[in-house]
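Protein modeling request. Please complete all fields; requests missing the sequence field cannot be processed.
Requester role: graduate student
Desired output: 3D structure, token encoding
Chains: 1
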Amino acid sequence: MLCLGIVAATCPGQALADAWVQDDGKTLLILSASHSDSGVAFDDAHRRTRFPDDGKSQLNQLNLYVEHGITPDLSFIGNFYADRVGYRNDAGYGSRTTSGLGDQEVGLRYRLDPGGGQGQWVGAAQFLLSIPAYDRDDEPAIGLGDYGAELRYSVGRGYRLGQHDAYLDMGLAARLRGADAADEMRLDIATGVALTPRWVLLSELNVIQGLGNGRGWNPSNLIASNNYDLTKLRVSMLHTLPGGTQLQLGVQQVVAGRNTGGGSAVFAAAWWRF
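Delivered output (274 residues):
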């Protein structure tokens, strides 16, 4: 499966607050588009290198994220992807692309505040099911090729940074993968600072640690391993328009990894709440 790790390395997502649930009957929609094109990779020893034979990976992605409050304590979560994945090099592989739906995620988030909700921190437990919506024999591959399940717990709180309102969200998750892909532990830390009433600075750290139980390895191809690690940083600005729609523009950079792409990405998104 050629591009294992490329989609994970270049998929931006959004800087969200997983420790909070949506109000009963309220919905958040985020539609985002992202682009990445890079020849940078990380090998099996975590060394930054380049794809063999001047290879380059590319990802163009559309992502629709949905949160809907079912009750005051329970929210539905949906994360839907459409991808165009490409890989090219100067050897016999040439240039190939695959387009289609990616790994679609659906789940539930339940309010579970630490300390019984008596302090400043809030919390939530979340379960996600990852469903492949593509042909697992595609080359290059769009996703990891099988079903997955994730259990996450997040905590968060609002705070003041000088004269500015801000929030902090921290989450730890275990993701079980089907087929040959390795299971994962995930750590996500996100923060937002309201610079003005209409401008918010968002930043996020995402860490994926593979558990080493993936099967299959092709030593001639850096991205053919089913075991990979990934650390990436994301920074963006979120602007609220007079009508309430929010526009987001940001960049992402992979800063460390193993058996994965190492490039950067740019992304733009629109947020709606109703």
